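ZP: hey, is the glutathione complex queued? I don't see it on the tracker
AM: it wasn't, my bad. submitting now with these inputs:
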Amino acid sequence: MRLYTYFRSSAAFRVRIALNLKGLAYEPAFVHLARGEHLQPAYQAVNPQGLLPALEVEGTLLAQSIAIMEYLEEAHPRPALLPDEALERARVRSLSLIVACEIHPLNNPRVLKYVKNTLGHSQEEVDAWYRHWVADGLRKFEAELARPGTGRYCQGGAPTMADCCLVPQIFNAKRFQCDLAPYPLAMRVFDACMQLDAFERAQPGKQPDAE
Ligand SMILES: N[C@@H](CCC(=O)N[C@@H](CS)C(=O)NCC(=O)O)C(=O)O
């Protein structure tokens, strides 16, 4: 498998964790997001969505991190990223989507660039936008973690897709100096995850393309 990735891409980070948790080897293909390589024809020919990550499996290109993780789960069921029980699976997906649908889409580079360059907002206003949506989403995530189901990890005693989504979002929040004090449950889960080699090895600073 070949993973199109960038060290700072949090969506790629999700998939790097999932691959590591499942013990699946992959060949990284680095696409420099900050230099706009994802917008160049070479990468657009690989992934017409022009986003990271993408995973090439036996000649087929998969895009969208959640779909990629769902594919990995179906093709390589153990160790599982989703619990066996249907209601618990739904909870894990719900937590995952708070990050993937409620926070990340509002804060990825093309959105921030549009807010700044096209709508003419200052860097301070862009940073305020960023922190606002992180706080809004993490507040929801924290409230869900306060409900039954949470264990050492987001759901029970083993890491799931929800942890694969939460951890990269916390890395991003730290990079943008968001206040994380209001989310003790999320931070406790984050700390537990970061003790696992699969998460540790996947983090931005440990990637060969890290700057
Ligand atoms: N929903 C997509 C999001 C993909 C995405 O937005 N990736 C970011 C990097 S984390 C990206 O490629 N951004 C390019 C840009 O904003 O121009 C997924 O989960 O894979």
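AM: back. The radius of gyration is 17 Å.
ZP: great, adding it to the tracker
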